[in-house]
Structures are given as C-alpha cells and as structure tokens.
Amino acid sequence: MDISEIKGNENVKRVLEIALAGNFSILLIGGRKSGRSMFKEVAKSLNGTGLFITRENKCKCNYKECICTHEELKEHYKYLMDLWNKDYDMYCEVNYPDYNQLKRKQEDNASVLERLQKVSNFTSLECSGKADALLKSFYEKMEQTPYDIKIVIKVARVIANMEQSEFIQTQHIAEAIQYRIFEPLQKLQ
What fold does the segment set 120-189 form as a domain? Predict the structure, then answer.
C-alpha cells in the first residue's frame, strides 16, 4: 500500500516517518474506518516490518460521533492507559479527514523512503539550554518517569537527525513530548 492512498492525517504520517527512522513502537487510536489499518500496511510497505504498531478504538462504542457515557469512556481509557504503559514509545490519534483533505495531492512512498535514507546519526545527544529546560519542566510538572524522558530524548534526536540539526533543539523536544502525552486521559480530567 502506498502512503499517497491515505488522505489527511498528516500528524500520523509524521509519527510514522519518525517511528520508521528511529524504530519506535506506536499506539494508534481512532474510530472505525479512520485509517489505522492502512497506516500499518503503509509501514510494512516502507520496510517497517519490525515496527510495532497497535490499533485500538478510541472509545467503546467506536462510532464516528461517540455515544459512550463518561463512565464508559473512563473505563475504556483506563484500558488504553494500561496498554500505553506497557510497550509503546509514541502515541497518535487517527482522525477522520475533513473533505478538503480528501482532495489534496498526497506524497508517495518513494518520497518518504528518500527522506528516510538521508537520516543519519550526526546529531549530538546534547540539548540546547532551552531544550533542556523544557525537558526538565516536562519531567517535573507532568510527573514523568526517567523512562519517559529517555524516550523523549531518543525521539527528539531522531527528529533532529531528520532535520540535520547538530544539537537537539527546543522544537525537537516539544514535538517529541507531544507523542508521549497520552491525550485521551487528559480529556477526561
């Protein structure tokens, strides 16, 4: 399957590309027919056969417009949180694209593979001062574990490598953090 067949969900395409470059595991959450299975097929076609991707429903009812009660959502998100805590490096929600996204021309697998082949490991593990401050704030204020910080740094380094940056910058840490925050749980609080 070619990535050009998937319309919209640019955020998921970005996560997939980072995961392929760094060999990270992904938890994809979305509704019925949102495209989760298609992303797994695209990963295989991009030589991501060892990539660990799991697809889960965003709620118990699995309708486009959720009809679950607050308690049902809490129960399902607890289940998702248990999954998340086990084996995943990155989280991403697959959404239904809006109509305008369906009409846009999409890039193909060859373009993605070309970018992936240019990724090297020349970025230092050093963070800029502001990037380090953001990482410290994430660790302390969001009550993250040392493992979470390790994954954020690894993901940020891959992002920096993709941009051919010498050091891990604030924008690399910020992007990596957004893939470690499990959003469904935040929505219920």
Answer: Helicase, Ruva Protein; domain 3 (1.10.8)
